[in-house]
Amino acid sequence: KQEMTRLIQAGYKKFGFVGDNRHCLSFRERFEAMLITIGKHDLSHHSSMDFIYEDDNPILHKTELMVREIKRKKQLCDCYICANDSNARFFINALHKAGYKCPQDVKVIGFDNATSAQSSKPTITTASLSSDDIANTLLTTMLHRIKNPHISRLKVSMRTTLIQNESTKIN
Question: Which residues have CB under 8 Å from 37's CB, separation 6+?
């Protein structure tokens, strides 16, 4: 949300999603956060510019298929929110092969602060979760569940830290 807001304030208006927004809860939440942020700024979501496919769809794993899909679109968004850093790196490579430059033509944001985000060219702006926070939350939750087996499922939300890199650089 933070990076989208910065880009919106800089004049970028069209945001799209890359990945399988139903693969898991966190991917769905990332997609929904994008929609909420767009709505808060009175912008429209142009779903025809998204690249949403089920995770096992070859288009998310074969560059030539994604390049063809990018070229098929009449217009691309100013910025794409990707389900994770792996999708972001893959999408940036496909954009490049389709004749687009990141961040000059299209901005890209990933999630998870994977090693690939820092080794990508350009480096990927990403949302990071603290491994220590994840481990502590997991341990606390497991111990609570052991002591209270009758309690139904818990949903845990954690804050992310934005790591701003080259993929969202404003010219």
Answer: 1, 4, 5, 8, 15
Please tell me the distance from the alpha carbon of residue 82 to that of residue 80, in angstroms, as a whole number.
6
Residue 168: C-alpha distances to residues 76, 150, 165 (Å): 15, 46, 7
**Beta strand residue intervals within 21-148, DSSP E:** 51-52, 79-82, 107-111, 125-128
Beta bridge partners of 80: 16, 108
- What gap in Å lies between CA 18 and CA 91, rounded to an integer? 8
Tell me which amino acid residue 11 is.
Answer: G
Q: Give the chain's length.
A: 171
pLDDT, one tens digit per residue, over 40-69 is: 999 988 888 988 887 777 776 788 899 999
Query: What is the edge-to-edge ordering of all strands in the sheet holding 79-82?
Result: 51-52, 15-19, 79-82, 107-111, 125-128, 161-163
pTM of the model: 0.82
% the chain with pLDDT above 70 = 94
Tens of pLDDT along 33-42?
899 999 999 9
